[in-house]
């Protein structure tokens, strides 16, 4: 949406006048186009907003996110409020895509030779693990529910390895050294202390020896069945501050190193051995992005303030909106026209019913007036006729019932009409008394 369209939208909200005149729209448009000079926005903030807008615009035409997406908070380099980004994670998003998106949003260009990765941090920031670039992010996040404190887990994007470290680890096909090791749950004989062991990394397995001179290993672990984290939990009382934690289905292993350099070398060697030297995609090869990608930051779509690329498309949008408004007006007018005839019909029905009621009352009055005449005619009946002769039966009652049934089926009156008719009937109840008085006077 360009500045002019935004001005048309917000002018009626920001001004207490008509809000649609050209002067008010021009004022809002000038505020949008010249907000940097008017509000004294710093250059670095302007550059950052331009980068974010370009990133959002890049994915504006992608598919709408489907069910299963999750909004999570991802940190950059360290866990601080200013370093966090809320981003949408799709069920098929991989760690490489998440890392690239975060770096693009923050405008971070990795220096040559540095490898950035997404780390999983758990156990109150005591343990962290780099995710492989093909690892599913959402699947790993959902596994946090099994932790003792799932709320303390988070993701952070930061530097992991350098080209020099990778070359150094690849030159050595075997990594070995003395480490202090502790198994959890611990055995009764070994106690609850860290034991000196000699560890050898070879052929995708980790071999544990009592000492360098031992010819037979005590234990052997497959790296593909274990997860290795940087760090050791404090409750384990590690002898040093540098170590690794290995998780398997049934056991946890804690390995302590003598220095930070030894810790990083062991972690790099294990990471490379686990993935058979495939630790990062080849240079220049872009992997397939998630099909449900929709860059909604914070759950709300951000619309960058910039000119519309296609002016004709914007004009078409305006014309379609006007046509829709005109259609709604016509529908409303049609509804009103439909309501008026219905009211007229109801009024005519009421008038017809009242008229029919008056005729019926007049007929009753005539009947009552002719009672005496009927008695006289009965007295004048010839005696030659049979005593039980009553004369021909008139089908008047049957016809009245049929007419009444037809009227009921043809006209189903509303409740208000029925109430009005009941009032008329109540008023007509006094008529028989007047008729009786009239008959008495005639006698």
Would you kindly provide a written description of the structure presented here, covering whatever features stand out?
The chain has about 450 residues and is an alpha+beta fold. It has helices at about 5-15, 20-35, 35-40, 45-60, 95-105, 135-140, 165-170, 260-275, 310-370, 370-380, 395-410, 415-425, 430-440; strands at about 70-75, 85-90, 115-120, 125-130, 155-160, 175-185, 195-200, 205-210, 220, 225-230, 245, 250-255. The strands form two sheets. Strands 9-8-7-6-12-11-10 form a seven-stranded antiparallel β-sheet, with helices on one face. Strand 11 and strand 12 (about 250-255) form a beta hairpin. The chain starts with a helix and ends with a helix. The relative contact order is 0.09. The model is unreliable at about 290-310, about 370-400 and about 400-410 (pLDDT under 50).
Shape: elongated
By CATH, the superfamily of the largest domain comes out as Pleckstrin-homology domain (PH domain)/Phosphotyrosine-binding domain (PTB)
Largest sheet: 7 strands, antiparallel
Looking at the overall shape, the CATH architecture of the largest domain is: Roll
- Spatial ordering of strands, largest sheet: 9-8-7-6-12-11-10
Give the fraction of residues assigned to helices.
Answer: 40-55%
The fraction of residues in strands falls at: 15-25%
> What string, H for helix and E for strand, traces the elements in order?
HHHHEEHEEHEHEEEEEEEHHHHHH
Distance between the termini: 96 Å
GO molecular function: GTPase activator activity; phosphatidylinositol-3,4,5-trisphosphate binding
Pfam family, one: RA
Signal peptide: 1-19
Keywords: GTPase activation, Signal
């Amino acid at each position: 949406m360009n500045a002019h369209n935004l001005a048309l939208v917000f002018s009626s909200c920001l001004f207490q006048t008509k809000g649609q005149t050209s002067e008010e729209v021009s004022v809002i448009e000038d505020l949008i186009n010249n907000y940097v000079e008017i509000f004294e926005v710093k250059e670095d903030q302007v550059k950052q907003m331009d980068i974010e807008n370009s990133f959002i615009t890049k994915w504006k035409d992608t598919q709408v996110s489907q069910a299963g997406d999750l909004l999570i908070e991802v940190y950059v380099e360290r866990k601080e409020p200013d370093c966090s980004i809320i981003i949408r994670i799709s069920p098929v998003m991989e760690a490489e895509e998440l890392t690239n998106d975060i770096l693009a949003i923050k405008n971070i260009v990795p220096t040559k030779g540095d490898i950035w990765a997404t780390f999983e941090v758990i156990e109150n920031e005591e343990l962290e693990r780099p995710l492989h670039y093909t690892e599913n992010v959402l699947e790993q996040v959902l596994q946090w529910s099994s932790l003792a404190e799932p709320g303390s887990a988070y993701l952070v994007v930061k530097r992991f390895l350098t080209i020099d470290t990778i070359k150094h680890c690849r030159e050595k096909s075997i990594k070995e050294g003395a480490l202090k090791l502790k198994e959890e749950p611990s055995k009764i004989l070994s106690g609850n202390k860290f034991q000196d062991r000699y560890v050898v990394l070879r052929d995708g397995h980790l071999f544990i020896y009592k000492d360098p001179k031992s010819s037979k290993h005590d234990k052997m672990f497959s790296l593909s069945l274990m997860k290795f984290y940087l760090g050791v939990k404090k409750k384990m009382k590690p002898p040093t501050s540098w170590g690794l934690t290995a998780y398997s289905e049934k056991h946890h292993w804690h390995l302590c190193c003598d220095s930070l350099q030894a810790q990083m070398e062991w972690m790099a060697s294990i990471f490379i051995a686990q993935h058979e030297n495939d630790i990062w995609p080849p240079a220049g090869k872009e992997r397939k992005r998630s099909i449900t990608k929709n860059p909604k930051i914070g759950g709300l779509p951000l619309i960058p303030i910039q000119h519309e690329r296609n002016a004709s498309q914007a004009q078409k949008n305006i014309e379609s909106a006007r046509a829709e408004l005109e259609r709604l007006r016509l529908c409303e007018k049609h509804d009103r026209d439909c309501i008026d005839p219905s009211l007229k019909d109801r009024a005519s029905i009421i008038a017809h019913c009242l008229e029919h009621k008056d005729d019926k009352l007049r007929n009753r009055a005539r009947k009552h007036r002719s009672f005496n005449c009927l008695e006289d005619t009965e007295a004048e009946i010839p005696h030659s006729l049979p005593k039980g002769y009553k004369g021909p039966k008139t089908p008047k009652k049957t016809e009245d019932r049929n007419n009444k049934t037809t009227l009921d089926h043809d006209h189903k009156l509303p409740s208000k009409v029925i109430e009005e008719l009941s009032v008329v009937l109540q008023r007509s109840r006094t008529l028989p008394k007047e008729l009786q008085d009239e008959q008495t006077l005639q006698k």
